Amino acid sequence: MSTTAPASVTEKFVLFELVSTTYGIRSSVVSRLEMVENVTPVPNATNSLEGVVLSRGRIIPAINLRARFGFPKIPYDLRTRLIVVEEAGRTVGLIVDTAREFTNLPSAEIKPAPDAIANLKGDYLEGIATINGRVILVLRVSEVLKGSEVEHDQGRED
Q1: How far is it, in rounded angstroms, from Cα 104 to Cα 116?
Q2: Cα–Cα dist 93/83, whole Å
């Protein structure tokens, strides 16, 4: 019988930047990366819902992650990306400052967020990883979308 320890489990992540901070989301929920082109505003939308976009023949909501996390919005440029994610039966575009990197992160390197930041508004952080001295905030996409304006709010009257 072999008693060798199992190899460290690694997962693929898409890395993106927002306000000069690196974030990671599991590539298993990422459908594609696109440039941000035409965003059609939606009436009475919250600040973080930029509107809807046409992506591969489908209309999908586009959330500005800067606004969702409480940062000021900036104009789009050639580096701005739309990360199309599929989570819990929903397809949503996340607008980020830039996204061009893919990496493997060992599961053991993703540590829980420190208590001081774990209870901030929204439970977005799954953990924090450090790779080659670089801090990566690992997002929990389901929490980013939970309670957001992209959830169906039927029967809403304002």
Answers
A1: 27
A2: 5
Q: Record the tokens describing residue 18, joined without a space.
A: 């927002």
Give me the amino acid identity at 97.
Answer: D
pTM value is 0.84
| DSSP states along 66-115 | HHHTTPPP----TT-EEEEEEETTEEEEEEESEEEEEEEEEGGG-BPPPH
pLDDT tens track for 100-156: 899 999 888 899 877 766 556 567 888 999 988 899 999 999 888 875 555 543 233
Strand partners, 90: 87
Residue 81, Cα to own-chain centre: how many angstroms? 11
Q: How far apart are CA 145 and CA 4, in angstroms?
A: 41
Distance CA 119, CA 92 (A): 25
Side-chain-facing half-sphere of 14: CA atoms under 13 Å: 23
Q: How far is CA 140 from CA 10, 43, 69, 81, 126, in A?
A: 17, 28, 13, 19, 5
Distance CA 69, CA 56 (A): 27
> Which amino acid, 18?
L
DSSP for residue 151: S
**Hunting for tokens 């993703």 — which residue is that?**
110
